[in-house]
Design a protein that fits this description.
The complex is a heterotrimer of chains A (about 130), B (about 350) and C (about 130). Chain A is built from two helices and six strands. Chain A is an alpha/beta fold and about 130 residues long. Chain A is globular and about 50 Å long. With about 130 residues, chain C is α+β, with helices and mostly antiparallel strands. The chains are: A alpha/beta (about 130), B alpha+beta (about 350), C alpha+beta (about 130). Bound molecules: iron/sulfur cluster (2 copies).
Chain lengths: ~130, ~350, ~130
């Protein structure tokens, strides 16, 4: 079984735009942006690739930090950045298509940050 | 310059099987801008991973999507197996590959049917779904489920396929192959189909790459991008070649899929011919500790499962990047400049699965 | 020739059987390993609760004291994990689907009273 290689580089938030620009110049495509909540902080992975050797840039942010948007470099990044904003309540500045929290319509704001109250459903459901 | 009006499109729409909402900014009949909204079917499956045993979660991972179900469970298992350093036996890898190709066939046939239906070509729709039923029969006979297989588990598979059954499956595929070729011929040559889809919703190769299109959407635009070429599971040993078309319009995205059905038949035949003997699962002990990005090619495109675990029986974070989510920006680009009446067909050609886009 | 391809197909459709089944008059297709619904052979159950712990949709409730085993059929996703983890192999998957319902579909299985021997034995060992 051949494995897909993956390198993860930890970078500072301020370097994000520069490093992303470098990736774009190398002809990488944006694979995904994903957020991992780690209790008190959040890890955000930006994954790029040209072939099957993936590269990830990782930034660590706290609640309330402002994350610069990379959608100026990769137009399609808006979908992930809005998702991060909608689900985790992090602020991403200057997104090209800013949905203002309306990409994923949730009843509870940022449900992945503030765990919604659990409503117990009776056995047998309410059908 | 006409007046601009905004037409809401979806989430309930006669031709759209999926709850995606688009705000279409129209100038006369032409779309100038499309703004997508999702969030109607968010189920919080990613969050559920914190509450379930990682081994049982395979079944939930499988239910992220009702069509690419088996591939989701394999990708999840791949990630866990990589973190824990489990070597999956060769037979399990081959059988997983066979089932993945079966789900590709049935997904593509379903999609081809839906597209024919969206064009108003009801005969073709019935024909595609009749063929799909044959595939599903084999699927049910080997896994016990039609679309939700529940046959993958961490370290291997839950059910074996006997060699006799494998032979029968190949015979059956041989029998339906001419029928698949016939329906393929209709998609390639029929005037109705060509007229409706040629030159519609064009996505150039550069745009496809830059906006992160994946799967048939990217391959229809000439990007040679298929995770199967990286050789996960047993694909490395089957001599896999991606199907690539170059026009980037709706017809080519459609042809990629109809060709891939035949390619999948070939792959299954080759996998059965090379099927190794041996055990079908590896014992799994302990809990995962670490992180891994697992990629795989679903019927709809490249899918990623990211898992971060900390040695407990519940995983910390499971992120799924499904093909539809990343195909939305290319879709927005495709929609710009087309006629209002073409919107449903163009939306369909990225094979949207909003259920998996939101998890 | 286009017209001949079409004639062939039209004739085949005219003469051939319909591709669909008249469900429910004709029963749906089933295979040996089709997963339809879960049944339990309660006599063999030792009320260990393994099935309850591993059920992903929390459809099973096992009560050791009252010797009952309960399943909510609408919650059950028919995955077959319970059948796999049961140490006594007393849960089985049946290939036919449970009947449709508009209400709830709880199934309550009361086990036989504990055989007096089994009760005494552990005490004797202590
Ligand atoms: S089949 Fe699956 S969902 Fe149904 S009771 Fe058993 S473990 Fe639970
Ligand atoms: S796992 Fe088997 S023995 Fe244990 S409680 Fe469930 S049915 Fe009974």
């Amino acid at each position: 079984m051949i494995e897909q290689k993956h390198t993860i580089t930890e970078i500072a938030v301020t370097d994000l735009l520069k490093k992303t620009g470098e990736c774009h110049e190398k002809g990488h495509r944006l694979v995904q942006i994903g957020c991992t909540p780690l209790g008190d902080c959040y890890e955000i992975n930006y994954t790029f690739t040209t072939s099957w050797d993936f590269e990830s840039l990782r930034i660590t942010v706290n609640d309330g930090d402002k994350i610069p948007s990379i959608s100026g470099i990769y137009w399609g990044a808006f979908i992930y950045e809005n998702e991060i904003h909608d689900l985790f309540g992090l602020t991403v500045t200057d997104i090209n298509v800013d949905f203002q929290g309306h990409l994923i319509e949730t009843r509870i704001p940022s449900p992945f940050k503030n765990a919604p109250p659990v409503t117990k459903v009776k056995k047998g459901g309410d059908a | 310059m006409g007046n601009q009006i905004v037409v809401p499109f979806g989430p309930q729409h006669p031709v759209l099987p999926e709850p995606i909402h688009l705000d279409l900014v129209l100038e006369d009949e032409r779309v100038v801008e499309a703004v997508p909204t999702i969030g109607y079917v968010h189920r919080g499956l990613e969050k559920l991973v914190e509450k379930r045993d990682y081994k049982d979660y395979v079944l939930i991972a499988e239910r992220i999507c009702g069509i690419c179900s088996f591939t989701h469970s394999v990708t999840y298992c791949n990630a866990i197996e990589r973190i824990m350093g489990i070597e999956v036996p060769a037979r399990a890898q081959f059988i997983r590959t066979i089932w993945m190709e079966y789900s590709r066939m049935h997904s593509h046939l379903l999609w081809l049917g839906l597209t024919a239906d969206a064009m108003g070509f009801e005969n073709l729709f019935m024909n595609a779904w009749r063929l799909r039923e044959e595939i599903l029969d084999d699927m049910e006979a080997t896994t016990g489920g039609r679309v939700i297989q529940g046959s993958c588990k961490v370290g291997g598979i839950r059910r074996d396929i006997s060699d006799d059954k494998l032979g029968e499956m190949v015979d059956h595929l041989k029998k339906i192959r001419p029928l698949l070729e016939e329906s393929n011929r209709i998609f390639t040559h029929d005037q109705t189909v060509r007229h409706r889809m040629r030159g519609l919703g064009v996505l150039s190769k550069e745009d496809a790459w830059d906006l992160g299109a994946v799967g048939p959407t990217a391959r229809g635009s000439g990007c040679d991008m298929d995770v199967r070429s990286s050789g996960y599971s047993a694909y490395g040993e089957l001599g896999f070649k991606p199907v690539v078309f170059t026009h980037g319009d709706c017809l080519d995205r459609c042809l990629v899929r109809s060709e891939e059905v035949l390619a999948a038949v070939d792959l299954v035949e080759r996998a059965v011919a090379k099927m190794p003997d041996g055990p079908i699962e590896e014992k799994v002990k302990g809990n995962p500790d670490g992180e891994y990005f697992a990629f795989s090619e679903q019927p709809r495109g490249e899918c990623m499962h990211y898992i971060k675990a900390n040695g407990k029986k519940n995983i910390v974070r499971h992120r799924v990047r499904t093909p539809t989510l990343t195909n939305i920006p290319p879709l927005v680009k495709m929609l710009e400049g087309i006629e209002m009446a073409d919107v449903p067909v163009v939306v369909l050609t990225i094979d949207p699965c909003i259920g998996c886009a939101e998890r | 020739m286009q017209i001949f391809t079409m004639t062939k197909r039209a004739l085949a459709n005219l003469v051939g059987k319909p591709a669909t089944l008249m469900y429910p008059a004709t029963p749906a297709k089933q295979y040996e390993i089709s997963r339809g619904h879960v049944i339990i052979a309660i006599e063999d159950c030792i009320y260990c609760g393994n099935c309850q712990r591993h059920c992903v949709s929390q459809a099973i409730v096992v009560d050791r004291e009252a010797r009952t085993w309960e399943i909510d059929r609408l919650r059950c996703i028919i995955c077959g994990v319970c059948a796999e983890v049961c140490p006594k192999d007393c849960i089985f998957m049946e290939p036919d689907y449970p009947p449709s319902t508009t209400g709830t579909a709880m199934e309550f299985v009361q086990g036989p009273p504990a055989p007096p021997k089994a009760e005494k034995k552990p005490k004797a060992e202590e």
